[in-house]
Amino acid sequence: MIPGEIFISFVDNEGMKTGFDFEILNKIKENIKSNIVINGGLNSFSEIIKIKNLNFSGVAGSRIFCFKDSLESILISYIDINTKKEIYENSNIRS
Q1: In angstroms, what CA-CA distances link 50 with 28, 33, 45, 77, 91?
Q2: Pairing between strand 58-60 and 35-39?
Q3: What is the dihedral of CA 38, 42, 67, 88, to 10 degrees?
Q4: What is the reported pTM?
Q5: Strands 5-9 and 58-60
Q6: 15, 33, 40, 44 - which has most CB atoms within 10 Å?
Q7: What is the pLDDT of residues 35-86, one digit of tens each?
Q8: Rounded Cα gap, residues 43 and 18, in angstroms
Q9: Of 9, 90, 17, 3, which Cα lies nearest the Cα of 52?
Q10: Mutual angle of helices 81-89 and 45-53, in 10-degree steps
């Protein structure tokens, strides 16, 4: 039986913004034919492009969108339109 989707989480990298281990991801992609979502360690919007260009079905991230200021309040950031365009244009994502 083949699962419909697998969610792989690099738990040690959660919230650290250390980046994904692309050597491991390449091995996973070579050996697993299901849809795969990657999570844990996303450090930049360009990594979203790398993940999509490796034909993973998705990438999850949260800390990259949240920032703490000196008062310990959380500031939420959203991807601006130019970054969205860059991600789309530099990846194999097609509608």
Answers
A1: 15, 18, 9, 21, 8
A2: parallel
A3: -90
A4: 0.63
A5: unpaired
A6: 40
A7: 889 888 888 888 888 888 888 888 887 777 666 656 555 666 667 788 778 7
A8: 6
A9: 90
A10: 30
Cβ–Cβ < 8 Å for 8, 28 = yes
Single-letter amino acid code for the residue at 46: S
Quote the pLDDT of residue 47.
84
Query: Which string of DSSP letters, residue by residue, matches 46-83?
Result: HHHHHHHHTT-SEEE-SGGGEEE-TTS-EEE----HHH
Q: Which two tokens stand for residue 50?
A: 């790398």
Q: Which two tokens stand for residue 65?
A: 């969108």
Domain range annotation of the chain: 5-84
E strand or H helix that includes residue 38: strand 35-39
